[in-house]
Input
Amino acid sequence: MLPSTCASTINNGVTMLKHCLPALFLLAFPLAASAAQEDPLPQLASPARAVLSPSLATLFVRGSIPVEMIGGSPSIRILLPANAADLQIKLEGAQILRMTQRAVIGTPDGGLSRERARMEKEIAELEGRSKAILARIEYGAEDISRGIDIQALHVENAGIKKQIKTLQETLKAYPESMERRTLVTAALAEAASFKKQAKALAGPTVQPGASIEAEYSYKIPDCSWRPEYNIACSPQDDGKGTIRVRLEAVVQQSSCFDWDGTVIQLVTT
Output
């Protein structure tokens, strides 16, 4: 699993990807105002494969998607990160008539969300400690006979302020909101091989067995990888030595959810 948090390292073999899935539909996703949600949202699907360049990631997902009756038409819904772009969908046994998308609010998920919450909590606790120390400094300054080491308290408070500043600087690299999502709804044209499944639908809810096989991909910015070289030198008594160079790939992703069971592939462009 590749968490949506700090960088991870890959040092095994790398497969270079040259071709992407054939595309039936392309869609870009600008951010929009969040709309009210009547139905439970589908889950963010973990990608089977992720192709990372130095500046973005292309995620490939495959699996069965439930079919729902929406507006009188058999439809599928796909939940994506808010910053997803260039959606490409390929369906088995059906065609897409039209697609719509809207911004929604989901549940924070992934290591990045948990790490951000942890740091925000730590900052709040440190700020509380700083206020308590300042109160003790003020109390001690009112009467030196109280024996409070004001200088030591100033040093302690300076250390706390430094910790707060470091955490705040780290948080700047994290997305401000991990709850924003894009919900894509695709109305389907019933193909011959799909009609039997469509007949199982009696209303707006999904009936058992009513699903369709799909493959889709989309791009996520702010995901990257970079090479990192580790060099170790082992000198010997005769003046010679051995130099070992190890090449690793440091991978970072910020898609707002963890990639579970995903095959990572690296490309240079």
